[in-house]
Amino acid sequence: MQAWVTETPGGGDEQSKSLYNETGARRRRAHPKSRNGCQHCKQRRVKCDEVRPACGQCIERKWKCEYPPPEKRAHLSPPPRNDSSESLAIPKTEPETPPTSISDSGSPAAESRNAIHTGVIAYLERTSVPRRKLEPDGPQVRLAVELVDHFLDTTELWVGSSVSQTIIQRHAFPMAFHASYLLHAVLGCAASHLQFLHPGEKKYETAALHHYTRSLQAYSSQLVHDIEHGDGQAMMAASGLLAKLTFINTVAMNADEPLSPRTSPVCWIRSMQGVKVILSTPNLKTQLQTGFLLPILQRYKTPPPMDINMRVDVQDPDSPTSMLARLRDFCAISSLGAADPYTPIITRLAPYILAVPDHDSVDEMMAIVAGVETSFIELLEQCDTRALLILCYWCARLPFIQQWWTGPSARIECRLELGLAKLPA
């Protein structure tokens, strides 16, 4: 039997006696005191690493980390210098509160930018295996700072419409410090874009794959195992970034594969279905309906029905109207109310066949795939010719948006779909 099981107050050897005070009550284990810890650690009376904007305890438990206001701590003496492995390897230049605001110019204020850098580096230190301090001017720190700055400072439209990009750049990092899947998605997008701009730089390729994988793992875990306690805003933001990363990564992996049902687009389409789960979870939907992502959420609404009496224009058989009419005829759709698996997605796709999609259409274009019905996905799994052709129309319209991730992957996917449609059943 283990010694600690048989301990009795006042009995046993000197080591056992030291566990109890003179009254026979068990002594409380001593631990270093933290006067500047966050509110959660103070309430739980546990050691706080005092890292800002979010301490390790709160990040591990997915809590919102809050520190006492400066005025409540003004009378306290400065804490002693901590040279343990828990401390950051770079000077703490961040403000007393997490970064939550961005200046009118669209760039974070200098102090907030420093806080974001410090928070990202602190997170990478805590999650490194084996855990270690990063050199202040080492390659990992320089790359992390570069990814943060690239994500915040890129002004060209590259992660969505003008509306969604402005919102994501403004709010992503304050949310990301409480949601690791969003932090990795942000860094993964920045690394992937830099890889596109500098294809010879191996560091961007490695970082892109690392952060994409970590984001997808954490996001899937939240979605499957703890959806009710998720942050609707952070999950929706992550889903939008992951949709783009999944599209370019999955399609690229299948580019050199021989045509077969295994290379069907079902994998990356299924990965985007998390949006439907988020919007069907009551507390997450409530968060979104009152939050700053509402303008993006509204883009997921089904467009109004189009004219069902369209016919091929014999004078211009290649016109958008003729294209849509031929697609409807091929899928044998007699009316928009018909109970078939093709009508819903063609209804949502029709406006972007009739008009050339642009930057402001990218969110709606991605929403078409994110909201596709299960019955349609099952047809894609079976390499149904009609379903593959509809998706090919979607892929053919996507490059018109002319963002870095839309063209190459869409053209590869379109080739695969056309090839699969010709395979024998």
From TrEMBL:
Superkingdom classification of source: Eukaryota
Region span, Disordered = 1-42, 69-111
Task: Name the UniProt key words of this record, in alphabetical order.
Answer: Nucleus
Domain Zn(2)-C6 fungal-type per the UniProt entry, residue ranges: 37-67
Read off the SUPFAM superfamilies from this record. Answer: Zn2/Cys6 DNA-binding domain
This entry's Gene Ontology molecular function terms read:
DNA-binding transcription activator activity, RNA polymerase II-specific; zinc ion binding
**Known InterPro entries for this protein?**
Fun_TF, Sterol_Uptake_Regulator, Zn2-C6_fun-type_DNA-bd_sf, Zn2Cys6_DnaBD
Name of protein? Zn(2)-C6 fungal-type domain-containing protein
